[in-house]
Structures are given as structure tokens and as C-alpha cells.
């Protein structure tokens, strides 16, 4: 599990928007579509990344770690600027000004991620 923990923490820290997904999930598809449309509006240095859990040998370990740490097992699992946002319904509920404000916030430093 420590490999999953390290991977998850690194991806959340390295990517301004991080989505843990499954390729066949319609809710994941909706979330990825939204962020793909918003990605061009991200400021320099802010990245968007997706990890497809069903396409990785360690996908279940990653999903288990996120479930234990953040309390959500279902996908997608969305992080913005190091903060756990939730799933597709949570992201869709933020659409508009709230989501734009989150995406425009200053990128956290490595120290702020660990705080």
C-alpha cells in the first residue's frame, strides 16, 4: 500500500487538477469532459492529469488508499490544488463561478500540500 500512497500523494501534489478514474465509468467520462474543456483556461504551471485505475495493475491499491484516506471509494475521485473535491456530482455542483474560482486560486507549494 505504501507505493499507492506515494503515487497518490505525488500526483495530487504535482497536478493542479488530479482525477482518479475508470475508463468505462460514465460519471468519470462526464468529469473528464468538463476538465478537458476547462484545461485550456488553466494558468501556466497548473496541470490536469487523469489516472485510469482499471488500466493499472495497482489500481485497486490506489482506490483502496484513497477510500481509506478520503472516505470515498467510488470514482471519479477529484482533487483540485491538493484538496479532495469528491466525485462527479460534487464537481458538477461547483460548475460555474465556484469551480472557476477554485481553478484560479494560487497553486499551493509543496509545504502547503503537507500542512
What structural keywords apply?
single chain, 115 residues, alpha+beta, Glutaredoxin, 4-stranded mixed beta sheet, 6 helices
Quick summary:
This protein is α+β, with helices and mostly antiparallel strands and 115 residues long.
Q: What fraction, in percent, of the residue positions are helical?
A: 40-55%
Which secondary-structure class do the elements indicate? Answer: alpha+beta
Uncertain ranges:
none
Largest sheet descriptor:
4 strands, mixed
Order of helices and strands: HEHEHEEHHH
Number of helical regions: 6
Cα separation of the termini = 22 Å
Q: What would you give as the CATH superfamily? A: Glutaredoxin
What is the averaged pLDDT score? 93
Report Rg: 13 Å
Detailed description of the structure:
A four-stranded mixed sheet has the order 2-1-3-4, with helices on both faces. It has a single domain (2-108), classed as Glutaredoxin (3-Layer(aba) Sandwich), CATH 3.40.30. α1 packs across α3. The two termini are 22 Å apart. It is an alpha+beta fold. α2 (26-38) links the parallel β1 and β2 (48-52). It contains six helices and four strands; from the N terminus they run αβαβαββααα. The longest helix has 13 residues, at 2-14.
Which SSEs are present, and which pair or pack?
Layout: H1 2-14, E1 17-21, H2 26-38, E2 48-52, H3 59-70, E3 77-80, E4 83-86, H4 88-94, H5 97-104, H6 110-114
Parallel strand pairs: 1-2
Antiparallel strand pairs: 1-3, 3-4
